[in-house]
Design brief:
It is built from 1 helix and 8 strands, in the order H-E-E-E-E-E-E-E-E. By secondary structure, it is mainly β. It has a 5-stranded antiparallel β-sheet. The protein has a 3-stranded antiparallel β-sheet with strand order 2-1-3. The two termini are 29 Å apart. The structure holds zinc ion.
Length: 157
Amino acid sequence: MSDSEAAAEGDTTLDTADLPFRVMPAVTVDNEHFWTGGEHGELRILRCQACGYWIHPPAPICPQCLGKDVVPEATSGRATVLTWTINRQPWYPDLDPPYVVAIVELPEQSGLRLTTNIVELDPEDIDFGLEVRVTFLEYPDSGGSVWLPMFSPVNHV
Ligand SMILES: [Zn+2]
C-alpha cells in the first residue's frame, strides 16, 4: 500500500486566516505611498527626481544630493533575499510560527533593502539570493486600508 500523500501543496492562495504578520505599520503622510501602493499592485519607494536615488526608509531630503524633490515611484517589485530569520516563537498572540522575516534587496539600487515577510514558501526552503516578487496583503486600518508588502518566490508553482 502506498501511503505517499505528496505533502499537499495545492493551496497557495493567501488566506487571511493564516496571515503570518499582523503588526500594523504607522501610516503617515511621509510613508503613505509605501503602505497604499499595493492597492494598485505597486511597491512604491521615494525617488529623488534630481539624481534618481531611491530613498527608503522615506525621508524628505535625498541623502545623496540633498535634493528635496522626492516623489514615490513604482519599483519593479522584484527582490532577492539577503538574509532572514525563521521565527518559531509565538511572540505575538496573532502570529502563527514558523514564519520568515527577511531582508530583501531591490534590483533598482544597491543597498535598497526592505525588511519583510516571505510567504508562499516553506520556511525551510528559503535561501540566500532567492528571487522573490512583491505581493500585497490588504488589512483594514483606522484610516482605510493598508497593503503590507510581502514577497513570494518568483518560481513558485
Ligand atoms: Zn538626489
